[in-house]
Structures are given as C-alpha cells and as structure tokens.
Design a protein that fits this description.
Order of helices and strands: HHHHHHHHHHHHHHHH
Radius of gyration: 23 Å
Number of strands: 0
Largest sheet: none
Distance between the termini: 25 Å
Structural class: mainly alpha
Number of helices: 16
Length: about 350
C-alpha cells in the first residue's frame, strides 16, 4: 500500500541526489521523505473520512450530554469522548471552562482532557500500522483507564477546591443551572401528565446535515487539523530520521534495550520538557522501537511528551492553582510509568 512512497523516497535520495545507500545521511533522508509522505497521506484521507462521520458532533453537544449523566457513568463517557474528539493543549482552556460552566464535575472534565491528547483517530491508525492491533487496543484501553482513574482520584480528593477562583465560580454556577434545568424538566413532565393536550418542547431537535454540508465540514476539518499538525509531523519525522540515520546501530539497545526498571521513569521525565501531539510523536516512536528501545519505555516517553509537557501545564495554570497542577502532574507521571512497565512485561506475550 505504501510502496509508492518508498519508491519516491528511493528515487529522490539515490537517483536525484546520488547518495550511497550505505551513507548515514541517505538513510536519514530516505526515512524522512518516506514517513512524511506516508503520514501526510494518512492524515488527509483519515481526517476527511472521519470528519464525514463526525460531522454532527461538537463540543457543546458532548458537554450537554455529559451534564445529565450519573458521575460513575460520566467518567467512562468523558474518557470515551476525549478519545474520539481531537483536542490538544491549545484547546484545553475553552473546553475546560465550557465543561465547568455546564456544571460537569471536575473529575469527568479531567477524564475528558487527560484522554483527549493521548488518543485520537489518526494516532490510532498510525499505531496499528506500527505495532499491530493487539498493542493498539491495549494502548487505547490503558490510555482511557488513565483518564478514568485520574478523574475518579481528583473527585475523591475534592480537587475542585484548587481551581482558580473564576473557574471554581463557573463550576458552582453551572451546577446551579443544571439543578434548575432538572427541576424544570420535572415540572414540565408533571404539567404534561395533567394536561395531555399540551405538548411542551424543551429541547431543540438537531437538523440532519446533508451530504454536501458534511463534505464542506470535512474539507474545513482537513484544512484546520492538517494546518495545525503538519509542522509537528515534520518535527517528529525529522527527529525520527535523525535517530534512524545517525544513532549507531545497537547503541539504544545496548544502554536501554534490556528494559531496566529505571529506564521507564527516566523516559517519562525526559519527555516532560518536550512537546508534540499524538500524531507527530508516532515517527519518533517508530524510530526508537526500530533502534531497540523497548515498547513500554517508548510509549512512556511519548505519552509524557504528549500529555505531561510543560507547555500543556503552563496553559492549564490559567484555570488551576499550583496544588492541583502538581497533583495532576504526579498522577500522570505515575500512570505513564506503570503503563510502560505493563507494556514491557506484556510485549513478549503479544
């Protein structure tokens, strides 16, 4: 399927540039060109196709749906919606405020926000091509578990007390509005029971989009999402190409390939100063695994880069106090370390 990109990369590197296949630069350039073309093609096709299906889904609808759910079910639904909606750190604050303003408990909101950068449809498809279905399904399950358990823990310790004052006030007002709305629904149902000839409509029915409207929406999604992630793909593939072409064969495997227990937390800490999204980090993951780094250690590094980076927390500082940020940070570091250990232990069995 991707042979055409391999052929293009070989033609450019070996024929046009005249580089020797044994040269380190040739290997790095070949990796860069082939993976860039492959990922761009997947991005364009997958974003368009999935946008057609998701044309009617928007964050307001997700927010309103979660607002009426029991908290226990809400954690799972929040994590699930986080996995299927493409949000990154640049979207975290408006999404956070939208959820709190709707009266959604902080734990459910955090389950959404923790899961969203870790899992998206494009990254999942790329992971399938890199690791196969078994590892990808395990990654999805563990990624959603991090969001769910993180949300449960933050609610258990009443972490909403550590929100910035304006965010805490928005949550309080949202809960009041939600309570008033539920009371209004009960009164409306009572009125309907006593007045069968009167129909009270309290919700608007969404109009189904036509195929042309879905097509227009999909084109906009392609332009928006591709415009947001292409640079991270270039950076990620560039780093992967450098690792692939210039790191001596066996170096990573010799020092970290034995899966030492300390290599996983070390990889998590190493990923914190960096930043990428789940799509851009896949080429780096591919190169690390190819060079002998265990899968669990690689995933721990990449998850830390995507969901526990300094840029993410700098943005979240606008709505959270330092105590809540530190707690969330610790939860993520522990979770990513445990996931790395699980994958390293399970890799011989899968």
């Amino acid at each position: 399927m991707f042979q055409v990109f391999t052929d293009i990369a070989s033609w450019l590197v070996y024929s046009v540039l005249g580089l020797s296949p044994e040269a380190q630069l040739a290997g790095a350039l070949h990796f860069f060109i082939e993976d860039t073309l492959k990922i761009f093609a997947l991005l364009l096709v997958m974003i368009y196709g999935i946008a057609l299906v998701r044309a009617s889904l928007n964050v307001e609808r997700v927010r309103d749906y979660l607002a009426g759910k029991h908290r226990t079910l809400g954690y799972s639904l929040g994590s699930l919606f986080g996995a299927i909606t493409p949000f990154c750190s640049c979207s975290s604050i408006p999404v956070f405020l939208g959820f709190t303003s709707a009266g959604i408990p902080l734990g459910i909101t955090m389950a959404f926000l923790i899961t969203s950068p870790l899992i998206n449809e494009v990254a999942v498809l790329l992971l399938v091509s890199l690791l196969g279905w078994k590892f990808t399904l395990l990654y999805i399950a563990l990624g959603m578990s991090v969001g769910i358990l993180g949300g449960v823990f933050l609610d258990a310790i009443k972490a909403e007390r550590w929100l910035q004052p304006f965010a805490a006030n928005a949550l309080i007002q949202g809960k009041k509005k939600q309570g008033m709305a539920m009371q209004g629904e009960v009164e409306s149902k009572l009125d309907e029971n006593h007045s069968p000839d009167t129909t009270a409509t309290t919700a608007t029915t969404a109009t189904a989009l036509t195929l042309a409207e879905r097509h227009d929406f999909a084109k906009e999604e392609v332009a928006t999402i591709f415009g947001r992630v292409w640079k991270w793909v270039i950076i990620g593939v560039g780093l992967g190409a450098a690792l692939h072409g210039f790191v001596p064969d066996g170096w990573i495997e010799s020092y970290l390939g034995a899966g030492q227990w300390w290599s996983v937390p070390a990889a998590v800490l190493l990923g914190i100063p960096l930043y990428s999204n789940a799509t851009g980090v896949i080429p780096v993951m591919e190169s690390l695994i190819t060079n002998g780094l265990p899968i669990g250690t690689t995933l721990a590094f990449c998850m830390s880069t995507v969901a526990a980076s300094f840029p993410e927390f700098i943005l979240l500082k606008q709505v959270m106090q330092w105590r809540l940020l530190a707690t969330l940070f610790a939860v993520l570091l522990v979770a990513f370390t445990l996931i790395g250990w699980v994958f390293n232990a399970a890799s011989p069995l899968l």
